[in-house]
Write a structure and sequence with these properties.
The structure holds 2 protein chains of 2 kinds. By secondary structure, chain A is of the alpha+beta class. Chain A is built from 11 helices and 8 strands. Chain A has a domain at about 85-175 and about 245-390: MetI-like fold (Orthogonal Bundle). In chain A, the strands form 3 sheets. Chain A has a 4-stranded antiparallel beta sheet. In chain A, strands 4-5 form a two-stranded antiparallel sheet. Chain A has a two-stranded antiparallel sheet with strand order 6-7. In chain A, a hairpin with a 2-residue loop joins strand 2 and strand 3. Chain A starts with 18 loop residues before the first helix and ends in a 5-residue tail after the last helix. Chain B is an all-alpha fold. Chain B is built from 14 helices and 2 strands; from the N terminus they run H-H-E-E-H-H-H-H-H-H-H-H-H-H-H-H. In chain B, strands 1-2 form a two-stranded antiparallel ribbon. In chain B, a hairpin with a 5-residue loop joins strand 1 and strand 2 (about 75). The chains are: A alpha+beta, B mainly alpha. At the A-B interface, helix 1, helix 3, helix 4, helix 10 and helix 11 of A face helix 2, helix 7, helix 8, helix 12 and helix 13 of B.
């Protein structure tokens, strides 16, 4: 008899109602939808391109481009060079404006950010209004303002604004002296690199010694001496092998020196002033993020005010400041593409503008341009994630 | 035992001199900074005031009021020529939108202002109806009003005639109305447990966030026509709007994701424990809280998007910036770039500054309620 030993069976699992099945179905549907959408787009594009007689493939890169680029600080481009060369020129010009912009924006941003926290009412108010005004006006408007309004009222070459006979500012741009290395300059570079290597080793040794014995080493003054003295001696031996080529007014224009065209100046001014306002806010919040207790605790263990700043405040503030700072650098680089609006020959203007118009190969050219910016962004965000995990507070 | 006399609290010293000493001359270097700052202000402010207010021209007929030639045939210039703004104001506001139809633009804006104002009435209970109206019905009404419809007796106005501040505001609004839902969907996708959905969302978000807006707009202007079957024409403005929406949506997604991550896990578990499914959990419990946390972030993204709408002028849509730029190349009114750009900048500044103050106040309110 087994009437009283009935076991209640687990309810038979309905495969159609299980979570796994549902998620499989949903994902398959999404997959099918996306793939068919892409297929539809690709098919349409292919049909349209054949119908309009547009070539495809990347062969055009090696064809001769029939245009000149006016501003080439690094490599040459005339109408007999290839499209690939034009791409390189554009890329280098983008890099030039991005690097210079990041440099100036960082300096200005830190100054304004610290100034915003100043006890002095005027300084703090001035920095505050700078931040509010600059970041609430569109960047493109600012670029136009500098390029079409401010730089247009500069004097002609003959009556340039003159800074100590080496820097000249006029309608054609800013002319600055150009460094000319002479014989023996390589020796200085060589000595300089060796000194830097020595300094790095010295730093590692000093840090290790401090960890073991607790003795401090006067690292800053020693490093400075190690670098300056050999370089100075070699420079003296070779009779100072670096000279400067001054820009000189010849006829209606300046010859010699290095020329920063008005487009570059306007872009640089707008980008660095605009980005500085965002960096200033990051710096301010970074400094405010450090609690007063940190400074007091540091003072209580006997650190001097300079040491408190160097060893306690700045390292912790940097931890907060650096992640948003990198994203500002990234924004600045991406914003440098607004160059196209005032015809500064950057990547977008030269390649996605002129080259696209001439070849008509929109798909390839936009793909290349986008992937340049995309790889830059992804690289930086990967580095950022790595930095964040390295710098994050390690709880024990 | 001696009874200690109760001491009076120290007097609060609030004379102007104390304030000056505390805030401007507390140390010797602070005094130097103050004097230097005052000197700079003295150098900069009076000339600007002179140019913008005292010497400015406000009324007149044509540009000759603002500049003339003296006896040596040299061009003379008074201060700022605000007359120029006055003459072009209609163009700056509506672009080429026909004069007699501009009431339609104004009406569209009025409906918007009224329904947004309803949001701010404290004890108004039916706010969600207003929200649904704004996000669903309003875009349709606005489209019929602005674009026109022959059957309704409204004359058609082609989109290439739309322009000025009106177009800028329109692009910004469309950006927020479409980018926010897209951002919510993408953020949910990125937090999804389904690997395919998650991977697709991450790819989509990171792709659009990784490239500059101008390449997105080029992409929209050049590539969209290639993507659709032959014979289908997409309006230039619509292409731009799609580009802006996708771009804004990707940024919005990251903001919303921040809100989703900030919610404690208990909220999800509580919702599941009372038997809510995924969609009901999200729409009834999670999203209302997550979105409220990130209102400041949403507003800031909106400010960014609003400023970025100026980029459409590069692909020649007549937004506020391009109308100003166009007026400058008019031979009758050349030579007033400062006035034009200052006008446009002031417009953008007032709008963005007000919004950023609003976002700041919401942030403060949220911080208070979190600490309760």
């Amino acid at each position: 008899m087994n009437t009283n030993t009935q076991i209640i069976k687990a309810p038979k699992e309905d495969i159609f109602k299980s979570g796994k099945f549902r998620s499989f179905v949903v994902q398959s549907i999404v997959m099918i939808l996306v793939i068919s959408f892409i297929a539809w787009v690709v098919n349409n594009t292919a049909t349209n391109m054949t119908a309009n007689g547009i070539a495809h493939g990347f062969d055009f890169l090696w064809e001769t481009s029939w245009f000149d680029i006016g501003y080439l600080p690094f490599i040459e481009h005339t109408n007999s060079h290839t499209y690939f060369n034009a791409f390189l020129v554009g890329l280098l010009n983008t890099v030039l404006v991005a690097v210079l912009g990041i440099f100036f924006a960082t300096i200005l941003g830190f100054l304004i950010g610290v100034g915003r926290l100043s006890d002095n009412w005027i300084i703090s108010r001035f920095c505050g209004s700078y931040i509010e005004v600059l970041r609430n006006i569109p960047l493109l408007l600012q670029i136009f303002f500098w390029y079409h309004a401010v730089l247009r009222i500069l004097p002609r070459a003959k009556s340039s604004i003159n800074f100590s006979d080496s820097f000249f500012l006029n309608l054609k741009g800013l002319f600055i002296p150009k460094p000319i290395p002479e014989t023996g300059f390589n020796a200085i570079l060589f000595i300089g690199i060796i000194s830097i290597l020595c300094i790095i080793f010295l730093n590692i040794w000093a840090k290790r010694r401090q960890n073991i014995t607790g003795k401090q080493f006067p690292i800053y003054s020693t490093s400075f001496t190690i670098f300056i003295i050999p370089v100075f001696i070699v420079s003296f031996l070779y009779n100072h092998p670096l000279s400067w080529e001054q820009p000189v007014l010849k006829g209606f224009n300046f010859k010699g020196g290095f020329r920063l065209i008005p487009e570059l100046l306007a872009l640089l001014l707008a980008l660095s002033l605009y980005t500085a306002s965002f960096i200033a806010e990051n710096v301010r919040s970074g400094i405010l993020a450090i609690s007063k207790g940190q400074k007091e605790a540091a003072a209580a263990v006997g650190l001097k005010p300079g040491q408190v700043l160097r060893l306690i405040v700045i390292p912790q503030a940097m931890r907060v400041i650096i992640p948003p700072l990198t994203s500002q650098y990234l924004n600045l680089t991406k914003n440098s593409s607004l160059a196209v609006a005032i015809a500064y020959p950057d990547l977008v203007h030269v390649f996605a503008g002129t080259a696209l118009m001439q070849t008509g190969q929109a798909v390839e050219i936009l793909a290349i341009t986008m992937s340049v910016y995309l790889s830059l962004s992804l690289t930086i965000s990967l580095l950022m994630n790595w930095y964040n995990s390295a710098m994050a507070l390690k709880d024990r | 035992m001696e009874i200690q006399a109760t001491r009076k609290p120290p007097k609060v010293q609030t004379s102007i001199f104390i304030w000056l000493k505390d805030n401007l001359f507390s140390t010797w270097y602070n005094s130097i900074f103050t004097l230097f700052g005052l000197y700079i202000l003295y150098l900069v402010l009076p000339p600007i005031f002179q140019w913008a207010i005292l010497d400015a021209v406000w009324t007149g007929e044509d540009r000759l009021v603002c500049e003339w030639y003296d006896e040596n045939k040299r061009k003379e210039r008074a201060g700022a020529c605000w007359l120029y703004i006055k003459v072009w104001l209609n163009f700056f506001t509506y672009g080429f939108y026909p004069d007699e139809l501009q009431w339609r633009v104004n009406l569209t804006l009025l409906i918007l202002v009224v329904s947004v104002a309803l949001f701010f009435i404290p004890n108004f209970k039916k706010k969600h109806y207003v929200g649904i109206f704004l996000f669903v019905a309003y875009p349709i009404i606005a489209f019929f009003l602005l674009h026109g419809n022959e059957q309704l007796g409204l004359e058609n106005v082609k989109t290439h005639k739309w322009g000025g501040a009106f177009l800028t505001v329109l692009l910004g609004l469309i950006g927020i109305i479409f980018a926010l839902p897209l951002g919510i969907v993408l953020a949910l996708g990125r937090r999804s447990k389904l690997p395919v959905v998650k991977a697709l969302s991450i790819m989509f978000i990171e792709f659009w966030r990784g490239i500059p807006l101008i390449t997105v707009l080029f992409f929209a202007a050049v590539m969209f026509p290639l993507f659709v079957p032959q014979g289908v024409e997409i309006d230039n403005l619509l292409r731009c709007i799609v580009g802006l929406t996708i771009f804004g949506g990707a940024y919005m997604a990251e903001v919303v994701r921040g809100g989703l991550q900030a919610l404690p896990k208990g909220q999800y578990e509580a919702a599941q424990s009372i038997g809510l499914g995924y969609w009901r959990m999200m729409s009834l419990v999670i999203m209302p809280q997550a979105l409220r946390i990130v209102i400041p972030g949403i507003v800031n993204t909106f400010i960014g998007l609003f400023k970025d709408t100026t980029l459409v002028s590069i692909i020649s849509l007549m937004d506020l910036l391009l109308t100003v730029f166009t007026s400058m190349s008019n031979p009758d009114w050349m030579g007033f770039p400062f006035e034009g750009y200052i006008f446009a900048a002031t417009g953008f500044f007032i709008f963005c500054f007000a919004l950023s103050r609003y976002s700041l106040s919401v942030e403060k309110k949220l911080m208070v309620s979190h600490h309760k």
